[in-house]
Amino acid sequence: MSEKITKKIGFIGCGNMGSAILKGIVESGSVEKEQIYVYDVSAAAQEAMRDFGVRVMVNNEEVCKAADIVFLAVKPQYMQDTLASTKKALDDKCVISIAAGLSSKRIREMIDAKPRVLRTMPNTPAMVLSGAFALCSDCDLTDEEKETAQTLLAPLGVVEWVPEHLIDSVCGVSGSGPAYVAMFIEAMADGGVREGLPRATAYKLAAQTVMGTAKMYLESGMHPGAMKDMVTSPAGTTIEGCYALEKGGMRAAVMDAVHVGAEKSRELGRH
């Protein structure tokens, strides 16, 4: 059971990521459903939130008036219009943004009020309480608000505080990373199918291997290179596979993927 939070929590946007965070903090026990106020332009999302038992408001401004802490869970391209609709209601409030590419400074410029802003980068495994969250350490939140943000998000996965100038790098690693890991699982399973395994079995074995290896690292702190060495016997099957991956340029391709993802995040922040 997480530490109880007495503040009222607002959500502007309840898509996949917003609803995952919302449900996660409720399931952690840190916040009661009655403390949560939401609005989404989608009627289906509103209905889903009503069914879940939180308070659905008539518009964004009403969410901001009711809440002490407001999560901005809308796509970057809709942020300007969304924040314009909040009018003065975010004055002296704590705002937590999960929008990629939008700096704290830009978010403040979009708001006709003076809130305190925390920029974050979550990822989709938060939907199963195994996310990776990066929070900007050089924000203007009070110490109490920082502690509350940590308490809210910690039950959803790993929370790391980083300077805002590194948040685009985080986007390239953990923000986009679930897609790369999913591609790796799919490729592993395809290899298994090629060798005769049933599709469902290949997927299950590949996914469990990825999850188990990640858990092994997180719990042991063992260097990934040492974990690899544990499996690669001299003249064995694994070293042949490692050679094939190196020959195919796997490491360079992954590093390039992280780089272009970070660059795209920086580009979004410039527009």
Keywords:
alpha/beta; 271 residues; single chain; eight-stranded mixed sheet; 12 helices
The separation of the N and C termini measures 42 Å
Give the class from helix and strand content and strand pairing. Answer: alpha/beta
Query: Could you state the order of secondary-structure elements as H and E?
Result: EHEHEHEHEHEEHEHHHHHH
Q: How many beta-strand runs?
A: 8
Helix content: 40-55%
Shape: elongated
Helix run count: 12
Residue runs with pLDDT of under 50 for 5 or more positions: none
Adjacency order of strands in the biggest sheet: 3-2-1-4-5-6-7-8
What does this molecule look like?
The chain has helices spanning 16-27, 43-52, 60-66, 79-84, 104-109, 143-153, 167-175, 177-194, 199-220, 224-231, 237-247, 250-270; strands at 9-12, 36-39, 55-56, 69-72, 94-97, 116-121, 131-136, 157-162. The chain has an eight-stranded mixed sheet, sandwiched between helices. With 271 residues, the protein is α/β, with parallel strands linked by helices.
